């Protein structure tokens, strides 16, 4: 039987790649859901790198990152949030943004127990995963040596009127499962087959965002916005000029207003939102590796 991903090999960076170790660590959410974990090991790793996926995606979509990192003697880890990828829970649903952050902190803490205390740790997140990374770095700054943010979701798009934000919260209170207006998947990535791959991939969720999930994300964005000035973890932020999902100006303001001195803004004018599947991704991976190596 032909694997579903074969026709995407060569056009979708992660197609045909996988983490060598699945479900290697026992991890459960606060609601008791079993969370699927991944590891790309390295002998005597120079650093530990933790990947946090975007909304409705899965860690498997970042296997091309993990492979490149492991080749440079970095051990790479990830897990699927509840309702995402291969983890348990209602598909595509987020109950509370704090749960996602706490899941990440527990995963990092449990993973670090398997390695020498002095091994540096870096976190990388795309879109929603970037928001989670910032929140984690705010809560456990002494455990994180640096973070890599790929088009992080830093707030509500200014084009979304305050009235609509209130509407989302109202629906979340009275009907959390109400589906919201979907975003055109073709706006997320310049790769013309990205939407088709996303729809066919068994690890991703192609359904519409619901009101409960939307409200949970809004709370997470607000928490990060309120604490931008408290960010002390070194970071590099990658942002595209053709990003129709998150707002570029918010990314620039985050870099400007965060207090840490070791920070970098990497802007790619032609890049869309889904950095992990954009044509520039291999150049970005090389730049990430260089950035980490300078800090190990």
Automatic annotation (TrEMBL):
**Leader peptide range in chain numbering:** none
Q: Where is the Serine aminopeptidase S33 domain?
A: 44-280
Record-linked Pfam families: Hydrolase_4
Query: What's the domain of life for this entry?
Result: Eukaryota
Checking PANTHER family in the record gives:
PHOSPHOLIPASE-RELATED
Q: Return the protein name.
A: Serine aminopeptidase S33 domain-containing protein
């Amino acid at each position: 039987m032909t694997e579903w991903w074969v026709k995407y090999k060569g056009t979708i960076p992660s197609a045909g790649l996988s983490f060598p170790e699945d479900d290697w660590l026992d991890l459960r959410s606060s609601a008791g859901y079993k969370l699927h974990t991944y590891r790309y090991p390295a002998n005597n790793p120079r650093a530990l790198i933790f990947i946090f996926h975007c909304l409705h995606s899965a860690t498997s979509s970042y296997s091309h990152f993990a492979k490149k990192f492991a080749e440079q003697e970095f051990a790479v880890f990830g897990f699927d949030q509840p309702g995402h990828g291969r983890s348990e829970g209602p598909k595509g649903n987020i109950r509370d943004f704090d749960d996602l952050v706490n899941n990440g902190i527990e995963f990092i803490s449990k993973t670090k127990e398997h390695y020498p205390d002095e091994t540096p740790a870096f976190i990388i997140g795309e879109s929603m995963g970037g928001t989670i990374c910032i929140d984690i770095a705010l809560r456990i700054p002494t455990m994180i040596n640096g973070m890599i943010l790929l088009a992080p979701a830093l707030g509500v798009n200014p084009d979304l009127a305050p009235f609509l934000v209130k509407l989302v919260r109202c629906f979340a209170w009275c009907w959390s499962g109400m589906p919201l207006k979907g975003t055109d998947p073709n706006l997320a990535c310049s790769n013309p087959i990205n939407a088709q791959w996303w729809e066919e991939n068994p690890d991703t969720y192609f359904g519409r965002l619901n009101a409960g999930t939307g409200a949970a994300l809004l709370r997470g964005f607000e928490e990060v916005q309120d604490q931008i000035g408290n960010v002390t973890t070194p970071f590099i932020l990658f942002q595209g000029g053709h990003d129709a999902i998150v707002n570029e100006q918010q990314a620039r303001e985050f870099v400007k207003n965060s207090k840490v001195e070791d920070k970098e803004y990497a802007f790619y004018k032609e890049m869309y939102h889904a950095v992990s599947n954009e044509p520039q991704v291999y150049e970005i991976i090389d730049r990430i590796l260089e950035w980490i190596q300078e800090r190990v």
